[in-house]
Design brief:
By secondary structure, this protein is of the alpha/beta class. The protein has helices at about 1-5, 25-35, 45-50, 90-95, 110-115, 130-135, 175-185, 195, 205-210, 225; strands at about 15-20, 35-40, 60, 75-80, 100-110, 135-145, 160-165. The protein contains ten helices and seven strands.
Amino acid sequence: ARIVEAIAPERGENVVEIGPGLGALTDALVERAGRIAAVEIDRDLAARLRARYTTERLALYETDALTFDFATLGAALRVVGNLPYNISSPLLFHLAAYESRLRDIHVMLQREVVARMTAAPATPDYGRLTVMLQARFRVTRLFTVPAGAFRPAPKVESAVARLVPLGGARPTIGDEALFARVVASAFGQRRKTVRNALAAIADEASFRVAAINPAARGETLSVADFV
């Protein structure tokens, strides 16, 4: 109920749920939005969902969310999901590719992952995931979910995060592939200076032009510095 209240879906909105499973969130989402889409990879769970909802209430896509083309669902997408924790980072990177079509994302993840998503520079949780997401989204941790909320109780705590595309406030990145490579290289070995970590990409002159201290470490640089 807290997750649904945080999303506050309204009738007619373009809601898509990733991994509806047994439908714990699906009922409330369908009730509020009238009709939603859902992506479910498990054949048996998909069959249960088809038996439970008419196509007028649930547009079900039986496929892998990691390869699903979310652009086929239209614009102003509101993505919701209790994501499988083992694929949370690659799935977030996949969703980031559709940022222009997204209104927002609400996901439940392992608490440590949400800490990385919302981290500030020069903190232990700040890393590649932080920079890649914060260059595109405003990321907010909404609340934690204790292990006791699950049956059976896992060994980790969870948290719910909201990601809203930056839109006009998004920094201009001239070369998305190069940006991703720079960020990945900077955090590849955290103790390395950016001069050493990015030796294959940038020379001393490049650092001077960008006003970046080549003796700095990646985890001390802001998102704007990386851009």
